[in-house]
Structures are given as C-alpha cells and as structure tokens.
UniProtKB/TrEMBL annotation:
The keyword Metal-binding applies. It comes from Thermoleptolyngbya sichuanensis A183. Binds 2 magnesium ions per subunit. Homodimer. This is Isoprenyl transferase. The active site is at D29, N77 (proton acceptor). PROSITE patterns: UPP_SYNTHASE. Its EC number is 2.5.1.-. SUPFAM superfamilies: Undecaprenyl diphosphate synthase. Pfam families: Prenyltransf. Its cofactor is Mg(2+). It is an enzyme of class 2 (transferase). Belongs to the UPP synthase family.
Amino acid sequence: MTAKPTVLRDLPADLQQERLPKHVAVIMDGNGRWAKQRGLPRIMGHRRGVDTLKELLRCCRDWGIGALTAYAFSTENWGRPLEEVDFLMTLFERVLRQELREMMEEQVRIRFVGDLSRLPASLRAEIERSMAETSQNQGIQFSVATNYGGRQEIVQACRAIATQVEQGKLHSEDIDEALFSQHLYTQGTVDPDLLIRTSGEMRISNFLLWQMAYAEIYITDTLWPDFDRAEFHRALVDYQQRDRRFGRLSS
Ligand code: IPE
Ligand code: IPE
Ligand code: MG
C-alpha cells in the first residue's frame, strides 16, 4: 500500500510548520466537572470527551503532527466507583469498534500503552484487533494510555531487563537510557515535546514519567469536553514561543 501524501489542511498562518511538536501528549481532565456544571451524571462528560479527542486527532493529522498520546485511564483510576469504571471500559470498546473504519481511511496507526492484561477480555480483543489492523498505516501514530501508570511502566521495564540479565542475554553495563527506553510501552516513538493538561490541574498524575523529561508543559483551565481546535491552536502558539534549552544556554 502506498502512503497517502501528507496534505496540511488549514495550518493557521501564525504557526510555523517546522517548529510544530513532533509528539503531543494530553491529559484529558475535567470530564466529571464539565458534567457536574450542567447537572449531568459524570459519564456524560466522558461521552463528550470522546468527541473532543476525535477532533484533536483530526487536527493533529491536518496540521502534520506525527504522534498524539492521550491519557484515557490511569492505574489509579480503578479506585473510582465501579459504575464509572465499567462505563469507561464499555465506552472504550464501543468507540474503538465504531472508529476503526475511519482510522483506516485516515491512515491512523493506533497503539495502546499500559498494562492491558487487567482490562476486560472483550475490550482487549477490540484493542488487539485495532492495533493489528492499523499497524501498517502510514499516518499519525495515535497512542491511548489505558491502565497506564508511569511507575508501573518503569517497573515492568526493569523486570524485563533483569530477566535478560539473569538469562545471560545482557550485561548490566549494557543498560543505558536508549536500552531502557526500548523496554517502555512507548518504544519507537519520540518523547513528547508538548504536554497539555486541561482543567487547570498542575500535576502529572503518573503520566509518562520517563518520557516527559524535557516536555514543555501547557495547562489550560478549559475542561476537556470544551477543548477545541482554537484551544489547541493557542497551546501550539505558546509552545512555539518557548525557549527549549535542554540544560544548555539560549542560542
Ligand atoms: C478525566 O476526567 C477522564 C478520566 C480520568 C477517565 P475526570 O473524570 O477526571 O474529570 P474530573 O477531574 O473529575 O472533572
Ligand atoms: C488523570 O486524571 C488520568 C486521566 C486523565 C486518565 P485524574 O483525574 O485521574 O487525575 P488526578 O486524580 O486529578 O490527579
Ligand atoms: Mg480528573
């Protein structure tokens, strides 16, 4: 299959294409508060949040951003009421089934990052199907962090590496940052350049702890269901004004 040419649709004039982030990560927060403000049950916020994510994915594709990672469910979110957890698992499964065709048309490569073993079997089956079917697509890499925890990810990487050392396949001196990164769920994807968190919370909540080392952080008070193209545009304008020094001095 030949790759579709990248057509940049409607890139706003104040954004410089060569200075766009290669990878955007987003903590989609504030669904519950959005619903509460409207006197609706929390799950209505999650439902609306799906539309926001679909629009952000389209926008990243239109503007030529190569990778998007969205935090959908953390290892700590199991502590929520059972009805909410169940609703979310069912929602993920339904959305995946509904969106597969469009993802194929849009050449999206979907991947799930996190410990998938604890997810309901029917969701896992849908996840595996979507990853397999889209694996050869040539467009945006879309990662969904589901039952994801940054610490859990680091621990599982340590275990995998320790096993190889035990089996004599690896020497401890060979362990370096590059090798470690290859054992993370995100292996093969550049670290995020930009982290967006909605709903005004000033924390990372166990998201991409290793990968976030030099991400630029953008926090908006807007609740996730209200985060739209105009908001994303503002985040990118802000990002392009940052002086990314990586510990060095400004040029
Ligand atoms: C984020 O919205 C979605 C998930 C964590 C699944 P929240 O559900 O955390 O919404 P708030 O923070 O309670 O408003
Ligand atoms: C982070 O949001 C997790 C996701 C967006 C999936 P939370 O709402 O769970 O984070 P805290 O509890 O406010 O830190
Ligand atoms: Mg929250």
